[in-house]
Amino acid sequence: MQNVYLAATAATPEVDFRFDTHSLSLKGESYPENAQAFYGPLLEMTARYLAGLDHARIVVDVQLAYFNSSSTKLLMSLFELFNDAAVKGNYVTLNWHYDEDDDTILEFGEEIADDYPALDFVAHALVA
Amino acid sequence: MPLDTPEPRAAAHVAGDLLQSPPTVSPAHSNYQVLELFSADASLSNLPVVDDKRPVGIINRNTFMSTIARPFHREIFGRKPCTAFMNAAPLVVDYHTPLTELSFQALSAGESVLSDGFLVTVDGDYAGLGQGVSLMQALADQQAEKHRQMMDSIHYASVIQQSFLQSSRRDMAAALTDYFMAWEPRDVVGGDYYYFVRRDDGFFVAVIDCTGHGVPGAFMTLIMASALKQVLTTRDLHDPAALLGAINRQVKESLGQLSRDELEHDDNVEIRSDDGMDCAFCWYDKATRTLTYAGAKTPIFVIEPGSDEVAVHDGNKKGVGYVSTPLDYQWENRRVTLAPGAQLYISTDGIIDQIGGPKRICFGKKRFKEALLKYRQQPMTEQRGRLLDVFHAWQGENARRDDVSLFGVRLP
Questions:
Q1: Any idea where the CBS domain is (chain B) (predicted)?
Q2: CA distance readout (Å), B69 to B32, B43, B78, B139, B374
Q3: The domain spanning residue B231 has which CATH number?
Q4: For A99, which residue in chain B has the nearest alpha carbon?
Q5: Is B322 within a domain?
């Protein structure tokens, strides 16, 4: 499985999916004009990657300051893939990084933790 | 000899539209003769070299003048052929080369095109010279024209979208006295929408955030408006939760946004949409002073008279119409009694999610509530200005991320 690296743009996050070390990260903001076009290929790759795993320890780091509603839906699909992988016997940690003063992003993370209970959700406050 | 004609400002489409007819020289001309031509006409920047009808090169004024001015160059090269200092490999393009293709060719030819220009031919014969600056001008004009056409079209779309809001505006003004409705699409048109109906026994208000913004967002508002209208033919306004449920079904079926289990047979549809809306639907009953609220990922904010707190009432966590929302999903009605002077605010996520402030983070509910409390004593129209000022100050230099809608009312 080829690793994926996409540099951040104003409207898309940095994507650093190191499938070989089971460490995946998203960082920045997400409000592309066509979220499906941006996330579709990533979802497909992640699904293929996860399909071949069993009892793996996967670490996902997410540090997003903003994502629009269409990105949200696709991010949820991504977390659902991880949750399914965790249900199937993998161990998935979701490190959720948020600014200490950003209650919106923290609340969003907590919703993910509620919706996808198989993930080992860890909230990390970024202190300035 | 003809002088450089002013470059044409009528829309240029092909290389030939940029054509100028400066004087030309043949390879047999001497550098002295070239010097004379440049000295005689200060506006002559590039001199095409043409052998019979064959384009040979371009002599650039600045290159030529600075070279010939070197010690002894005039004496040594003066009588020699003018090909000595010419760009012998200029860009040569056919008259009918489209501008876009010309610009790509110019880019790959390198910087020289900008200073020296390019030669234009008809059937291989020299026809004229195009200047680099004319090409840039034509591309800028083309860009501006495309932008103008697009914006004209979006501005007209905005007229249509706003006319859809007219009856709501009218009813709002007739039913309420102390209120405001701020509606600011990010891109002239947008995915935010509101709906207001005045009845004898109360009023119905909906604040809606359809997926997306700009043109696709505006499309969605029209789909949602028509779904709402359709649903209201068979249901009344007093049960907001039932309305959400009915719209959900209607939208999922009309856009084919069904989950795998809900699809009756396996449609091999390649492109499937997953669009819908987050919203707050409220019915206010005058006689009992009861607000019946059903929300799809959109809270409402209430300040009771004399209170120092903003009460947040959350709706359900499912959006309306999306693939992941079940076809038979049922929203819940929540009832809030509002005392005289109570204030109600409904906002889409555009305000709360806006990036800004010193740390470039979301505005957030906490700061939003603080702002509501700070200005709660003011008349509603005054509050509108204050709240938007706080919001714009938070946004600062950051780009607007989403459409913004904010409704506020103080009940008599």
A1: 18-75
A2: 12, 19, 11, 35, 74
A3: 3.60.40.10
A4: B361
A5: yes
Interface confidence (ipTM) of the complex: 0.85
Q: pLDDT per residue over B34-73, tens digit each?
A: 999 999 999 999 999 999 999 999 999 999 999 998 999 8
Residues of B in contact with A99 (CB under 8 A): 359, 361
Q: Which of A36, A38, A66, A69 to mutate to test the interface with B (most CBs of B within 10 A)?
A: A69
Count of domains forming chain B: 2
Query: A7-31, pLDDT tens digit by residue?
Result: 999 999 999 999 999 999 999 999 9
The SS3 assignment for A11 reads: coil
Q: Which residue among A66, A73, A76 sits closest to B401, beta carbon to beta carbon?
A: A66
Whether B234 is covered by a domain: the verdict is yes
Domain with B102 in it: what CATH number? 3.10.580.10
Q: Dig out the tokens for B112 from the structure.
A: 């020289």
CA dihedral B214, A13, B278, B217 (to 10 degrees): 10
**Rounded distance, CA B46 to CA B20, Å?**
11
Cα separation, B146 vs B41, in Å, equals: 37
